[in-house]
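Lay summary. Proteins are chains of building blocks that fold into shapes, and those shapes determine what they do. In this project we predict the shape from the chain. Here is one chain we studied, written as its sequence of building blocks.
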Amino acid sequence: MNVNRRLAEPLIALNTPVRCHIVGIGGPGMSAIARLLVEMGHAVTGSDLHDSDVVEELRQRGAEISIGHQAAVVHGADVVTYSTAIPLNNVELKEAQRSGIETRHRSGMLASLCAATNAVGIAGTHGKTTTTALVTAMTTAGGLHPSSIIGADVLGGTGNVHGDGLLLIIEADESDGTLDVLPLSSLVVTNIDVDHLDYFETFEAIKECFADAVERTRGAVVLNADDEGSASLVKALGRDNRVTTFGRSENSTVRIMSSVPNGEGTLVEVQVDKQTYKCELKLRGDHNTMNFAAALAIAVRLGVDPAVACTAASAFRGVARRFAERGDFRGSLLIDDYAHLPAEISTTIDAVRSHPALTGRVVAVFQPNRYHRIATMADSYADCFTQADRVVITDVYASGTQKIDGVTGELVVDAILRSHPLADVVWAPSRADTVAAVASWITLGDVCVSMGCGDIESFPDDLRGILK
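And here is the predicted shape, written in a compact code that computers can read:
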């Protein structure tokens, strides 16, 4: 077992009101916890470095939030919670420890929330956020009154919700050990791929993490029948009656019969218990078809009628930064996407290729993320851009990680050119270089997709800004 695996912290009893202070409350994961705690009747205070719409919305719900970190704000709290992004020498954490106030990593607070509910965890390397949001939409439509914790904004205001029942739909992240400690009633594993080697060290340890989560789950387990990384897990569980599978495989419990891109998104036909259902998704790409099938599989196991679930999915508008159309530039469409791993990049570019707006060429802009990831995985990006006509690679976005000498986005450029010497690949270390590499090339009918989980989100605005 990987020595880095997180150990479970003692649970916080949430059956009676507590006062919880949340450090970094404005982040997507922490704000979701705050929102749910408030709705459950607990007192919530928090702090963040910057004011924001999210912070103001939490204030409107009743949370007391200060801007900046100050020791005194933790006084009177029963528990102080924080994420991996918060350094352990943070003044609020240190004051809590000095004052004898309980502290919990985000994973520990999530575990306490799971223990107080019937928790359904949505795990996997890719697709967690969209699948969690889809399951929330389906179970809401099915009358199950779920609460949810989702790590991103959901379009149309159908994201993190608090229902009047005990069902909790939670995005269960493996990257920092959160999945290791969650007491889950049911579990979805969307897929298993290589990532977060700074935490897991090996792919075998990643697979072990998901296998352990399955073993601890007492209720339904949903697995990907088409996924190579999940194959050993599917095989090992055999005819375990907890298991439902999804995919295109003939043996899938929830089987995708067809998926056809159209003007609005994707028309999907899926078979459940030998009955076929149609769903007109407002989402593009094979990865979103699989996310839909995974969500449908767990929704059905939770008692939602498949037809009701499909209707809810048809109305679902997606999640922020997942294939988001961001306007045009000189008659070319701009798309922004969170894709940052090779499989995600490949499927996103494939989705661009099927977009009805594409009559010309595809330019893919990619911002590598985290120094350790690029140091260990740069070569794995060699073949994921093959469907793009031009590839622009920026420098690494740190995401709070320590810089490693010699690790830059140029490692990805080199990996691509070693495998594809004739590829049109541009090394653009600065944002100005990136804008120039796209602006000098793109024309009417082209599509530019910018990808990554850092500040590349602002690239479409920067590109359009040169026209002002």
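What the prediction tells us: Residues 117-315 form a domain with the UDP-N-acetylmuramoyl-L-alanine:D-glutamate ligase fold (CATH 3.40.1190.10).
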